[in-house]
From TrEMBL, chain A:
Organism annotation: Oncorhynchus mykiss
Matching Gene3D superfamilies: FAD/NAD(P)-binding domain
UniProtKB keywords: Cell projection, FAD, Flavoprotein, Golgi apparatus, Membrane, Mitochondrion, Mitochondrion inner membrane, Monooxygenase, Oxidoreductase, Transit peptide, Ubiquinone biosynthesis
Record carries keyword Phosphoprotein: no
GO MF annotations, alphabetized: FAD binding; monooxygenase activity; oxidoreductase activity, acting on paired donors, with incorporation or reduction of molecular oxygen
UniProt protein name: Coenzyme Q6 monooxygenase
FAD-binding domain segment(s): 109-215, 265-332
GO cellular component: mitochondrial inner membrane
Obligatory cofactor(s): FAD
Gene Ontology biological process terms in this record: ubiquinone biosynthetic process
Protein family (similarity comment): Belongs to the UbiH/COQ6 family.
PROSITE patterns, per database record: UBIH
Automatic annotation (TrEMBL), chain B:
Organism: Oncorhynchus mykiss
GO molecular function, one term: metal ion binding
InterPro entries: SAM-dependent_MTases_sf, UbiG_MeTrfase
Higher taxonomy: Eukaryota, Metazoa, Chordata, Craniata, Vertebrata
CC annotations in GO: extrinsic component of mitochondrial inner membrane
EC class name: transferase
Name of the featured protein: Ubiquinone biosynthesis O-methyltransferase, mitochondrial
Membrane topology designation: Peripheral membrane protein
EC id: 2.1.1.64, 2.1.1.-, 2.1.1.114
């Protein structure tokens, strides 16, 4: 990523330099709450003065990147509609007549050679598999349903909402005054059912998911409100006023799709002359909105290290700086992935002890501005 | 073909970043920026992406080309020379694979003296001469200095990295590095041939150079990395510049290096 478009994304704090002419709706506030209790947590910058995060539609990003690539056409060549059929890896020692670089064979018969191959081919990365890099992975028994939502009435749409249902989190992310984006993680079966529903029933189920209280148990409610009272004695000024999410009236045509969710982490991000970035190296649950951000972080780190190496006249495929990239990114990504996985498991249950635990946890965190600031800072890196 | 195979075998030694020459590979992290930045200061950046474009550099004692290649990648026209033909063969084979290097990196199995003779076509050709980890292997530094002077353009730069002659350097560079830790193969260095920065500076300054900077280098055997340091007690890097020539009042032939050596010796004898 070069030029005007510099990302340092997180779901909680984002810095985007905007290219003139495209708009990215802003989050002022992120509000997350539990379906099994009244516990909620809000993340916001004080007085909503600064923007906290941006959500940008994927096709806007892609369009901006494509335009930038066109500007760099004498240095970057994009070959569309090409598929790789084979990778040939360099031997670790020089063999007679063998080329010491990576060879990439395309479906059209063309062969490319490169000093450094960057695998950015997603969670089922062929580069990673062909390189024989072991991956720790498991499937969550969940799929995510995404759609564009039309709100019942235009509103100052600057709040992102996420509610943890027992089946999985449902999130509504603002796109404009009248539209929001839906990310609903739930069981495979439920996801398929949601896809089959007619528009009206689908909309109903979304509204119910956000508004209904049927998962509350008395015990949890009592415990929760007692704890909240205790907290308000200790820290009277903290805590958040409850806002209500907007209700949904319709969905964008053909915008409803689903995809399976899982977690994955490549045990190595690099090999001789190979580097993995983005989902090829790591795959997370969408509940924290961090997946793409981890990828952008990889890009920023690798770009910087490669620039330094080039300025020192190094062979770009050499191990020294690739190892630095791997170390730096694994140190950052692994804690984040562990946290996301933990959150997912924590919120996947109705069991009362877990609900009470997370209710207390959420409420407590909500009243501790220092802890929330830490969370926001970490996610912004 | 047999020769090529031999060079490729040698290449696995030279070019293995974790092998026998690992310390030399990681020394590039210091010496490439040292050369690059001092040349940029003197000549200004030419092209983005090729900071050394348009400059002619001579890498004396280039071995397998470990330093020659990065300089070539930065855009310079580099000639690497080494008396050991096998090393030159290895260097050529390794560089040949990289299209970025084919055009501007060349090697010759030749000594500096041969190159600087009139017939060797080396006179006054280069913007910079690099002699990294070389002078500690030479018996006759006087001749070496004169030859460097010969091949450099006036105002050209001489970059030397070498080992100081101190008790500390004996303890570390010979005993520790060669015998105990085996950072370099045993017998690589002869402590008697080490030269202190003061001595080297004196030698250069009395042979038409002005020494611009001397910096200490330190190797950490645990991390395998080099760093700059205050002390020049063990390893150090030196940058000198060839003075612009003044017209010589003597009428003797000043082009033949042996005559120059004789004249220099005579001058010193009188002084």
């Amino acid at each position: 990523l070069v030029g005007h478009f510099q990302w340092s994304l997180s779901c909680l704090g984002v810095k985007v330099e905007r290219k003139a002419g495209f708009k990215a709706p802003i989050w002022g506030l992120l509000l997350v709450w539990d379906a099994c209790s009244d516990a909620l947590i809000t993340f916001d910058k004080e007085n909503l003065q600064d923007e906290m995060a941006y959500i940008v539609e994927n096709n806007i990003i892609v369009a901006a990147l494509t335009k930038q690539l066109e500007n760099l056409s004498d240095q970057v060549r994009v070959q569309y509609k090409s598929k790789v059929v084979k990778y040939t890896w360099p031997k670790s020692h020089q063999v007679a007549d063998a080329i010491p670089w990576v060879q990439v064979t395309l479906a059209n018969g063309q062969t490319l050679q490169t000093k450094l191959l960057i695998g950015a081919d997603g969670p089922n990365s062929m580069v990673r598999q062909e390189a024989g890099i072991p991956t720790v992975k498991w499937n969550y028994d969940q799929s995510a349903v995404v759609a564009v939502l039309h709100l019942s009435e235009p509103t100052e749409n600057n709040v992102a909402w996420q509610r943890f249902l027992p089946t999985g989190p449902i999130a509504m992310l603002p796109l404009s005054d009248t539209e929001s984006s839906l990310v609903w993680s739930t069981s495979h079966r439920h996801a398929e059912e949601l896809l089959q529903l007619d528009e009206e029933s689908f909309v109903d189920s979304i509204n119910t998911a956000f508004w209904s209280n049927e998962n509350h148990s008395e015990l949890v409610e009592t415990a929760g409100s007692l704890f909240r009272t205790a907290l308000s004695v200790l820290m009277p000024s903290a805590g958040s006023a409850r806002q209500l999410p907007p209700s949904v009236a319709g969905i964008g045509p053909k915008s409803r799709v689903m995809f399976p969710l899982g977690m994955g982490h490549a045990s190595e991000y690099i090999r001789h002359r190979v580097a993995l970035i983005g989902d090829a190296a790591h795959r997370v649950h969408p509940l924290a909105g961090q997946g793409a951000n981890l990828g952008f972080g990889d890009v920023a780190c690798l770009t910087q290290l490669l620039s330094q190496a080039a300025f020192n006249g190094k062979d770009l495929g050499a191990m020294q700086h690739l190892l630095e990239y791997e170390t730096e990114r694994q140190r950052h990504n692994l804690p984040m992935m562990a946290a996301i996985d933990l959150m997912k498991r924590l919120y996947s249950t109705n069991a009362v002890p877990m609900v009470v635990l997370r209710t207390f946890g959420l409420q407590a965190t909500n009243t501790l501005p220092a802890m929330k600031a830490q969370i926001m800072a970490f996610a912004s890196k | 073909p047999n020769e090529v195979k031999r060079f490729q075998l040698l290449a696995t030694k030279w070019w293995n970043e974790q092998g026998d020459f690992a310390a030399l590979h990681s020394m590039n992290d210091l010496r490439v920026p040292f050369i690059r930045d001092n040349l940029l200061n003197a000549h200004g950046g030419r092209q983005p992406g090729k900071p050394l474009a348009g400059l002619r550099i001579l890498d004396v004692g280039c071995g397998g080309g470990l330093l020659t290649e990065p300089l070539g990648r930065l855009g310079a026209d580099v000639l690497g020379i080494d008396p050991v033909a096998d090393s030159i063969g290895t260097a050529e084979v390794h560089a040949w694979h990289d299209p970025d290097l084919r055009g501007n990196v060349r090697y010759r199995a030749i000594t500096l003296e041969e190159l600087s003779e009139k017939g060797g076509k080396g006179a006054g050709q280069f913007d910079a001469v690099v002699a990294s980890e070389v002078v500690e292997h030479l018996a006759d530094l006087e001749t070496f200095t004169l030859c460097c002077n010969q091949v450099l353009k006036p105002g050209g730069s001489l970059f030397i990295t070498t080992i100081n002659k101190t008790q500390l350097s004996y303890a570390l560079a010979i005993v520790a590095a060669e015998e105990v830790l085996r950072i370099v193969p045993s017998g690589t260095h002869d402590w008697d041939k080490f030269v202190s920065p003061v001595e080297l500076e004196r030698l250069l300054e009395s042979n038409g150079f002005h020494v611009e900077s001397i910096r200490g280098m330190l190797y950490n055997p645990l991390s395998g990395a080099w760093s700059w340091t205050e002390s020049t007690s063990i390893n150090y890097a030196l940058h000198a510049v060839k003075l612009e020539e003044e017209p010589n009042p003597d009428e003797d032939d000043t082009e033949d290096p042996t005559v120059i050596v004789a004249q220099a010796k005579a001058r010193r004898w009188y002084n």
